[in-house]
Amino acid sequence: MKIAISGKGGVGKTLLASMLSKIFAESGYSVIAIDADPDSNLAANLGFPQAEEITPISEMKELVEERTGAKPGKTEIYFKLNPKVDDLPEKYCREHNGIKLMVMGQVKRGGSGCYCPENVLLQALVNHLLLARNEVVILDMEAGIEHLGRGTARAVDKLIVVVEPGRRSLETACRIGKLAQDIGLQNVAVVGNKIRSKSEKEFLISNLPGFEFLSFIPYDQAIVDADLANLPILDSSQRIMAAVKDIYQALLPTAEAPVTN
Amino acid sequence: MKIAISGKGGVGKTLLASMLSKIFAESGYSVIAIDADPDSNLAANLGFPQAEEITPISEMKELVEERTGAKPGKTEIYFKLNPKVDDLPEKYCREHNGIKLMVMGQVKRGGSGCYCPENVLLQALVNHLLLARNEVVILDMEAGIEHLGRGTARAVDKLIVVVEPGRRSLETACRIGKLAQDIGLQNVAVVGNKIRSKSEKEFLISNLPGFEFLSFIPYDQAIVDADLANLPILDSSQRIMAAVKDIYQALLPTAEAPVTN
Questions:
Q1: Residues of chain A contacting residue B52, judged by C-beta atoms under 8 Å apart
Q2: Helix B116-132 and helix B61-68: axis angle, to 10°?
Q3: Which pLDDT score is estimated for A255?
Q4: pLDDT digits over A156-206, tens only?
Q5: Helix/strand/coil for B171
Q6: E-assigned strands of chain A?
Q7: Which of A63, A169, A174, B95 lies at a 20 to 30 A Cα distance from B131?
Q8: Is the ipTM of this complex over 0.85?
Q9: What is each CA distance from A31 to A14, A18, A77, A158, B140, in whole angstroms?
Q10: Do B200 and A144 touch (CB under 8 A)?
Q11: Which are the contacts of B186, defined by CB distance < 8 A and separation ≥ 6?
Q12: CA gap A184, B200 in Å, rounded
């Protein structure tokens, strides 16, 4: 079971990724959660201790150099385009509450040289996780599907695009839908988040014709308050958790039987 | 006057960028607004007609090839690292309501080769706009400051980091603050957005020690409703516009006298 989650910044991708990870793990599945959005913090949402101190793969300079043959930050001309990565999940996954986590980090752009080696390593790692692992893989992405390609599209059981009642999030969803089509990814579904009223729900449905809606998650101030009070996010809203459990149930028909940890 | 705006996805960077652009333009300044966040739509916020149809610079394949000597999408080994860009603002700015707009677009990463030529062109263009232009330049960025470097840090009169009441936006602000320090950018200030209560304001202040707060913008459902009803965002909330005018006033001491259009 491979689930990729995308959508505009701020719509709640990481919340959905962390809640789905928790539900799959508690249901007996072996889960690898992948933080591929440098503008979020999946580790913190999952309650990992010292979440800020986890070194992302892209910042492991020696590893990048060892596997690609290119020194990060230098404009190297030759490096390996197919670095060895199959041992990396075991070496660099953190584990907490039965959920394995990999933090991919940012591919730096511009200014100080060509950083492609990190990119090549991350890409190979995501490919490996999607194509060659038996776990439930939950990929929390940026506002795009840069981590996916024609080669991995068939491995993704569901690309969930999160939207909120706001036009910009719909534009991002349409852009993602087109990118998905371009790489042959068919299994795209939308989740509407932060829904305050029936009219907001209808707004999303009427403005995204042609998209399958998987579910709607209500707005709940309790989750904002828990965040401000520094309380665990995942336990702060039963209403939201119930809605995400519905999403889990909807995803299940495509899931394999639980893999024993 | 060069203003760069950053912050976590969804906090309201584009709203602030568009309102500031409008206020500067209405005050007689010549304004170039730069959309450097592919996950937003500054053109739509500014009311440009057919905002979705503007081709971003990074997707102008012939231009990228002409200026850098490298074909986008190909793993070219040699290309110009200092492409000519000083004629591009005149050629590729759109104008609406007295505001010039450049849409930079996305630097694609991974999957299908090395896309550095687009990146080099965008970088050179941003450098030019910050270092060699007399207009008020308002740069709407992603959740980072990838478009800035040591060479442009001194040209930025103010880097505004937008935050909202939520811990993830504070983490992003701290990360941006560190990146700014790394490149010697001193003029960093925070704007708190979507403020619903005094306690939310205090939450932001107490959790961002060492940051200068420029202003606070209240939450106003009117702006969400206007967006859903497809009405002009910029005219939808007098409360928010008044708060952004305060920010404009606070920025003014560093601004040059208006440049006649």
A1: 171
A2: 80
A3: 55
A4: 999 999 999 999 999 999 999 999 999 999 999 999 999 999 999 999 999
A5: helix
A6: 2-7, 31-35, 94-96, 99-103, 136-140, 158-163, 188-195, 212-218
A7: B95
A8: no
A9: 15, 11, 37, 15, 37
A10: no
A11: B180
A12: 44
A66's enclosing H/E stretch is: helix A61-68
pLDDT digits (tens, 9 = 90+) for B19-74: 999 999 999 999 999 999 988 899 999 999 999 889 999 888 889 888 988 765 55
What SS3 state is found at B192? Answer: strand
CB contact under 8 A, A122 and B110: yes
Residues of A in contact with B107 (CB under 8 A): 109-110
- Whether the per-residue pLDDT at B113 is higher than 50: the answer is no
End-to-end CA distance of chain A: 15
CA distance A40 to chain B (A): 7
CB-nearest to B123 from A111, A120, A167 is A111
- Per-residue pLDDT reduced to its tens digit, A95-121: 999 999 999 987 654 333 344 678 788
SS (H, E, C) B75-99: CCCCCCCCCCCCCHHHHHCEEECCE
Bridge partner residues of B163 (DSSP): B192
Cα B103–B104–B107 angle (5° rounding)?
145
CA distance B71 to B76: 7
Nearest-angstrom CA–CA distance, A121 and A147: 11
pTM of the model: 0.85
Which residues in A lie closer than 8 A to residue B77 (C-beta atoms)?
A: 77
Q: Name the one residue in this structure whose structure tokens are 């002409």.
A: B66
A contact set with B (CB within 8 A): 8-11, 14, 38-41, 44, 52, 77, 106-112, 114, 116, 119-120, 122-123, 142-144, 146-149, 165-168, 171-172, 200, 203, 224, 227-228, 230
First to last CA, chain B: 15
- What is the C-alpha to C-alpha distance for residues A105 and A58, in angstroms, rounded to an integer? 5
